[in-house]
Amino acid sequence: QVHLVESGGGLVQTGGSLRLSCAASGRTFSRYMLGWFRQAPGKEREFVASINWSSGSTYYAGSVKGRFTISRENAENTVYLQMNNLKPEDTAVYYCAARFDTAAAYNYWGQGTQVTVSS
User: What is the 3-state secondary structure (H, E, C) of the chain?
Assistant: First the structure.
């Protein structure tokens, strides 16, 4: 069973930075995609970024490209989301998710961590 635990959320001012962490356990993740999603109040959950654990290839939503960076630390089974130049519209609950690389959808989710950006 895959277990994902996020941390690192908090309150930050516009233009500030935060780094989210996702500790993954329960599997060998060499054939998994790990991703970050977010959900703001009253809005649908949306894709933020993902990384292929094996190749390190990364993918970003247009709204965060150039400001956010996803990375992984193999030895610690941890995925990071470095968020720079934060904006009030980045305020949301951020979720870590995982799927097998050939799966159509993410089927493992963490509990989420709140990010609030004040203007």
Answer: CCEEEEECCEEEECCCCEEEEEEEECCCCCCEEEEEEEECCCCCCEEEEEEECCCCCEEECCCCECCEEEEEEHHHCEEEEEECCCCHHHCEEEEEEEEECCCCCCCEECCCEEEEEEC
Nearest C-alpha neighbor of 12 from the set 20, 24, 1, 22: 20
39-59: average pLDDT: 96
Give backbone dihedrals phi and psi of 49, rounded to 5 degrees, phi first: -165, 155
Q: Tell me how far apart the alpha carbons of residues 112 and 33 are, in angstroms, rounded to a whole number.
A: 18
Mean pLDDT of the chain: 96
Task: Give the pairing type, strands 113-118 and 10-13.
Answer: parallel
Q: How far apart are CA 104 and CA 71, in angstroms?
A: 22
Residue 94 has which token pair? 């951020």
Q: pLDDT tens digits, residue range 28-39?
A: 888 999 999 999
